[in-house]
Amino acid sequence: MTFQTIPFLFLFLPLFLIGYLICPRKGKLLILTIGSLLFYAWGEPLYVILLMVSVGYCYWAAKKIDQSERPKVRRRILFQAIAIHVFALLYMKYYGFFLDTLRSLLHASWTYKTLPMPLGISFYTFMMLSYLLDVYWGKVKASTNILTFSAYATFFPKLIMGPIDRYANMVEDLEHPTPNVFSFGEGAERFLKGLAKKVLLADALGIIWTNVQSGSPSDLSLVTAWIGALAYTLQIYYDFSGYTDMAIGLAKMMGIRLMENFQRPYLSTSITMFWRRWHISLSSWFRDYIYIPLGGNRVSKGKHIRNIMIVWMLTGFWHGANWTFIVWGLYYGVLLILEKYVFSSAMKKLPVIIQWLITAFLVIISWVIFASPDVSSALAYLKSMFFMQGNLLVDEQTWWLLSNNLILLILGVLFVLPLGENIARRLKQNYGGAIALNILYLAMFALSLAYMMGQTYQTFLYAQF
Fold first, then answer.
1. pLDDT exceeds cutoff 80 at 110
2. How many whole angstroms separate alpha carbon 132 and alpha carbon 81?
3. TM spans, by residue (predicted)?
4. Quick check: 454 pLDDT over 80?
5. Is residue 319 annotated as a catalytic residue, yes or no?
6. ω into residue 351 within 30 of 0, thus cis?
7. C-alpha triplet 185, 186, 191: angle, nearest 5°
8. Cα 169 to Cα 155: distance, rounded to the nearest angstrom
9. Which of 287, 238, 354, 324 is nearest to 126 (CA)?
10. Poorest-confidence range of 61-70, 337-346, 392-401, 427-436?
C-alpha cells in the first residue's frame, strides 16, 4: 500500500486516524504499531514477519548493549547485531547481483531463483543500525518499552521511503504526541501538496521519460535526449520530495515531527550544497556513521579522498543492485574531490548563475546514469546528449514531445523555485486569501483523485530501494 492509492486515502488512513486520535495517550503507541504493521502487511504479508523479527532482535540487542558494563561484551553484541542486519540486507537485495557478477567473471551458466525484495528494507535497516550505534556510543539510552521502539522502527509514514530519522529525534513525540487542530491542518496541507507533486507532476513527467527511453538510446536526437534527461531530473525530485511531504504531513497530523529531507536541492550552486539539500537523512546518515568514524576531513589529504570515495561507493551501492548505481556514487565522489581540491577557488569567483548552471548540468548527467538499466545504455544515452552518435539535432519525436509537454516541463522547472510557498504565504495574510488557498488545496486534491482513477498506477521511484 502506498499513499497515492484509493484504498489508503479512503479506507486505511481515515480508520487509522480516527482510532489513533480518539485513543488515550497510553494506547497510541499500540495503535500506531498495529497500524504500521497492517500498512506494511498490505503489500508485504510475508515479509512483515521479517520486519517484526528485525525489530524484536534490535530491541533486545540494544538493551543488552546498554546494560552490559564489559566493553568486549558490548562490542560483540553490537558487531553481531550489525552483521545480522547487514547480511539480511545483502541477501534480500543483492544476492542476485553478486551471483550475476560472479557468473559473468567465471563465464558460468548457472541459474537461480530470485526473491522479491522486501519493501523499504534499505530504509528500515539503516534506522536499526543508527539506533544500535547511538546506544553503543552513549548518544541515547536503549528503549525499555518495546512499543516505543516498535512504533519508531515501523512508523508507517517513513517505513517505505524514509526520512531515515533517528530514534533520539522521535522518541519524545512518539511517547508524548501533541496532535491538535492546528497540527492536523498543517499536516493535511503538507500531505495534499505532496500528493499533487506525485500525481500531477512526477507521474506526468515520468511518461515523457518512459517515452524517450522506450527506444534505443543511441538513436535519440540531441534535443530529445536532453528533454528526456530533464524530465527524469524533475520527475525524481517531485516523486521523492512529494513522498517526503506526504510522510511529514501524515506525521504532523498525529502530532509527531519528522526531519526535513529536501531543501530546494535544484537551486544549489555546488555539488556539496546539492548533497546538503537532497535526501538529507541519507547523506547525514553516511556522514555520521561512516564518514566521521573513518576520520572525516580531520585526516591527511590522501585519507580524506579515500573516505570520500568509500562513502560515495557505499551510497551508490545502497541505492540498488546494479553497476549503474555504483558508477553514479563514484561519479559524485570524484566530483566532490575535484570541487574541494581542484576547482574550489575558481568556482567561487564565478557569478552565482554560472555556478548554478554548472551544478545543474552535472546533476542532470548523474540522473541519466542513475536511471539507465545498465552502464552501456547510460554511455549511449550520454553520447546522444553530446552529439557523439552522429544523430540529428531534432527529429519528429522532439517536436511531438515539445508540442504535448512544453507547458508541463515549464511548470516543472518553475515549481523548483519557491513559487508555491510564496503564493501560499501571501494568501494566508488575510481571511479571504486563506479561504481561496483552502479552495485551491481542495481543487488540487480533486484533480489528483481524477488522475489517480483515470491513469495507470505508478509507484514511487525510491520504493525500489
1. no
2. 8
3. 6-22, 48-65, 77-97, 117-137, 317-338, 350-370, 398-419, 431-453
4. no
5. yes
6. no
7. 95
8. 13
9. 287
10. 427-436
Q: How confident is the model at residue 457 (pLDDT cuts 50, 70, 90)?
A: low
Cell numbers for 99: 551471483
Q: How far is CA 152 from the centre of its chain?
A: 18
Determine the Cα–Cα distance for residues 445 and 226; give it in Å rounded to an integer: 31
Q: 234 near 197, Cβ under 8 Å?
A: no
Q: Please work out, in degrees rounded to the nearest 5, the angle formed at the alpha carbon of residue 130 by the alpha carbons of 249 and 20.
A: 35
CB neighbour burial string for 422-441, b if at least 16 within 10 angstroms, e if fewer: eebeebeeeeeeeeebeeeb
Average pLDDT, rounded, for the chain:
94
| pLDDT, greater one: 114 or 223 | 223
Catalytic residue among 85, 279, 304, 319: 319
- Ordered by start, the domain boundaries in the chain are 29-176, 183-457
The more confidently predicted of residues 194 and 461 is 194
pTM of the model: 0.95
Find, among 3, 13, 87, the residue nearest to 43 by Cα: 3
